[in-house]
Write a structure and sequence with these properties.
Layout: H1 2-11, E1 14-16, E2 27-29, H2 40-62, H3 71-104, E3 118-120, E4 123-127, H4 170-178, E5 193-197, H5 230-238, E6 245-252, H6 265-273, E7 278-281, H7 287-305, H8 315-323, H9 335-345, H10 356-370, E8 375-378, E9 384-386, H11 387-394, E10 404-411, H12 422-428, E11 434-441, E12 444-453, E13 460-465, E14 471-472, H13 485-489, E15 498-500, E16 507-514, H14 517-528, E17 537-539, H15 554-557
Parallel strand pairs: 4-5, 6-14, 8-10, 9-17
Antiparallel strand pairs: 1-2, 3-4, 3-12, 6-7, 10-16, 11-12, 11-16, 12-13, 13-15
Helix pairs in contact: 2-3, 7-8, 7-10, 9-10
Length: 572
């Protein structure tokens, strides 16, 4: 009996790590094939890390670090544990990081057979149906197109985007040569851009700007295209990506005795071990601020350079824009100024997590105090947009319409997003006016910029930029020309991440950029006719201004968002 059992076990298939283009799905191998062994060194490091670091720190956190005479010694011990963790993690090496990334965070791949459209902030991308017509070794070209005038600043409304002729799509190149710059019809304003591109050959690198990555586990290697349309990846890579930073000028700690009680246990332990007078990194608490910065940065990018901008174009203008978000109090949109306004007006202490509502208030205040031709309209804690209030912001003088960012803080469920909102939430990322969603994942905040329908159910996968990767502080330069290629590269990534909409946290901040009045009417119509249960409603009059018209039922349709609600506060 024992021998038979051993034979059955020996004949059982083994699951080995996925390799090559098919990675993402485990490879089943027979018992005769030698599976790739798990590195013993990694196993030893893992158990050493858990035994020597995780459990002692977990005990300290859950015990509340009681104030004993030996408290200083406990803190020193905790610091030594953390130092050991760093040393142990460094010993894992490149091989171990790849395995961990493969198991816990596999790179998403596209199914070329289903060829479902991939969306990125209102642009639709698909593969060519006749994929065999591509000759081997042919370079993949950057495909960009302008869907309609509302996706560019008004000053560029009747101009063809300035791009190298080799990178212009066929129709745009023909238009440029013929001199025909007639703007599209108003009806086109409701139609998103659809871009088709052929998949790059496996042995052909994509024709895009190189990106540099730090030693972060998930960004250790530049991924291949994974079957995604190259134009989609180029668009994704061109979005500005704000992450944790370290080594910046200290943000002073609050002297309020209740400030520490508002922090997480992990942050309390970290602040006790750190004897400095302030925070020199936002790691562990600043993720919602970083995703809010990303949303604002991409709004300004579209407003200044147009939605069709891609990396490598107008580098001087890109540097000027990034300088506004440097990790320095002199930069208007620095984390220092977000924290300062949060402490003064939102009741948020330095080192405390922000929620979507507090982030929206910070963006509103900082942008309106900095920009001359750019406005921010925030709906507060309800999803209703009121036309009279909006126009007071966009046309403050009653004549000139200024590009205006609409910020909607909302909550679409209790623990998870209610399924009735799945379609309408996905549709927000397909609108040409979309500038993304900040928040939306349990215990952390991400910046969502794209979507693709799921093959498994009626839901969608949402693509996002993850701020939880610590990089050196972005310096402030009076002369933006002093920014190095590494500084600029640290604000972009080609590495795709996605999650299913059912896994999202219901608390989020949704952004739309309205460039002109025609764009405003197109957006209102799109929101009104969106599929699924609407998450945004546009009314003519704000009832708080004394008008009888309004929607008393609005508060019952979508839950009110509050930063004081523990479920709506997003972990850093």
């Amino acid at each position: 009996m024992t021998n038979n059992r051993c034979e059955l076990i020996a004949q059982a298939p083994h699951i080995s790590a996925p390799q090559g283009p098919g990675r993402g799905r485990p490879k089943i191998t027979s018992a005769m094939e030698e599976p790739r062994p798990f590195p013993p060194k990694l196993l030893k490091t893992h158990f050493d890390f858990v035994g020597a670091v995780v459990w002692p720190i977990w005990f300290l956190i859950n015990s509340g670090c009681p104030a004993l005479p030996e408290r200083a010694r406990l803190v020193d011990s905790a610091q030594s544990f953390m130092d050991s963790a760093v040393a142990g993690a460094a010993d894992i090496g490149r091989y171990g990081r790849r395995i961990v990334r493969m198991i816990w965070d596999p790179e998403p791949t596209n199914d070329p057979i289903a060829n479902r459209p991939a969306w990125c902030l209102g642009y639709e991308y698909t593969l060519e149906t006749n994929i065999t017509s591509k000759t081997k070794g042919e370079d993949s070209k950057l495909s960009t197109a302008t869907s309609s005038d509302q996706q560019r600043p008004p000053a560029q409304a009747n101009k063809v985007p300035q791009m190298p002729s080799a990178q212009l799509p066929t129709e745009a190149a023909a238009t440029a040569l013929s001199g025909n710059t007639t703007p599209p019809t108003p009806e086109a304003a409701l139609e998103p851009t659809k871009i088709t591109s052929q998949p790059a050959a496996i042995d052909t690198p994509p024709d895009s700007v190189d990106s540099s990555f730090d030693s972060s586990m998930a960004y250790d290697d530049v991924p291949d295209d994974g079957g995604w349309p190259p134009a989609f990846l180029n668009d994704f890579e061109s979005r500005i990506w704000m992450t944790y930073r370290s080594g910046f000028e200290p943000i002073p700690r609050s002297t309020d005795p209740t400030a520490s009680s508002r922090m997480s246990f992990a942050m309390r332990l970290k602040t006790m071990a750190d004897q400095q007078a302030g925070f020199t990194t936002d790691s562990g608490w600043g993720c919602m601020i970083r995703t809010g910065q990303s949303l604002l940065a991409n709004s300004l990018l579209t407003c200044r350079l147009g939605r069709s901008w891609r990396r490598g174009q107008a580098p001087d203008e890109e540097r000027k824009l990034l300088s506004l978000f440097a990790d320095d109090p002199r930069a208007p949109y620095s984390i220092h100024n977000f924290v300062a306004h949060g402490a003064a007006k939102c009741g948020k202490y330095p080192g405390e997590w922000f929620g979507p509502s507090a982030t929206a208030r910070c963006i509103h205040a900082l942008a309106n105090a900095t920009e001359n031709s750019f406005r921010v309209y925030s709906t507060g804690d309800l999803p209703d947009v009121y036309e009279d209030s909006f126009m007071e912001v966009a046309k403050s003088d009653g004549k000139t319409f200024h590009p205006t960012l609409i910020l909607i803080s909302t909550r679409l469920g209790i623990d998870k997003i209610n399924q009735v909102y799945w379609e309408s939430l996905t549709a927000t990322l397909q609108l040409p006016q979309s500038v993304g969603i900040a928040g939306g994942r349990p215990s952390s905040s991400h910046y969502f910029v794209g979507a693709q329908r799921s093959d498994e159910d009626q839901g969608s996968y949402l693509f996002y930029l993850d701020p939880h990767h610590t990089r050196p502080a972005l310096p402030f330069h009076e002369d933006p020309q002093l920014y190095t290629p590494s500084d600029v590269d640290s604000c972009h990534t080609r590495r795709l991440r996605r999650l299913h909409i059912r896994e999202m946290d219901p608390s989020m901040l949704i952004g739309f950029l309205i460039l002109d009045e025609e764009n405003w009417h197109a957006w209102k119509s799109s929101v009104k006719h969106v599929q699924g249960k609407s998450i945004i409603t546009v009314s003519e009059h704000d009832p708080s201004k004394g008008s009888a018209s309004g929607r008393p039922s609005a508060i019952d349709e979508v839950e009110t968002l509050s930063d004081d609600d523990g479920d709506s506060v997003l972990d850093g």
